[in-house]
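ok new one. same drill as before - structure tokens go in, u give me an amino acid for every spot. 168 of them this time. try not to just spam alanines like last time pls lmao
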């Protein structure tokens, strides 16, 4: 007769038993540990770090190894097989800017109330008074790090109201 002590035990012990079984089954499917004990020790040390310590470690490694931060390219719909051919063509072209800051440069005095309402609607935690102060302190950046399509839409909406917008 098989041993069913986990299924007969109280709920807390049963949960612990299930967790132990899940952990042992997940370790069975994990890759074998590295053969170098130095690497194993480093992995163990890193896995014991808190999130803040891990962030400090990443920063320190980047500075010590002289690794510069680069923006990760967005996923494209192009198939992977065509990527090598396209890479050569992309290297020849200068990189086109895809992320913009939308700046409210100026506006018509008659359009001021409409622009204030639009700014208040666009920035949810802004009060009407704050939106008025924001609009009166132009030139000022309205939105940062927007994709080109969204920035163009926002620019067109504000220009229709009578504002002068700049994409930076």
């Amino acid at each position: 007769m098989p041993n069913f002590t986990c299924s007969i035990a109280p709920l807390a012990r049963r949960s612990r038993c299930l967790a132990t079984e899940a952990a042992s089954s997940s370790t069975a499917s994990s890759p074998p540990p590295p053969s170098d004990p130095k690497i194993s020790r480093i992995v163990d040390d890193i896995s014991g770090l808190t999130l803040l310590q891990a962030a400090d470690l990443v920063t320190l490694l980047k500075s010590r190894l002289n690794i510069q931060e680069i923006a990760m390219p967005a996923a494209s719909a192009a198939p992977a097989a065509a990527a090598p051919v396209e890479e050569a063509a992309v290297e020849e072209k200068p990189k086109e800017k895809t992320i913009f800051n939308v700046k409210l440069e100026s506006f018509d005095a008659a359009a001021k109330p409409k622009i204030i309402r639009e700014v208040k609607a666009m920035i949810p935690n802004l009060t009407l008074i704050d939106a008025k102060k924001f609009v009166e302190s132009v030139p000022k950046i309205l939105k940062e790090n927007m994709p080109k399509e969204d920035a163009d839409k926002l620019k067109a909406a504000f220009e229709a109201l009578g504002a002068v917008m700049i994409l930076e």
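The radius of gyration is 28 Å. and btw The longest strand covers residues 99-107.
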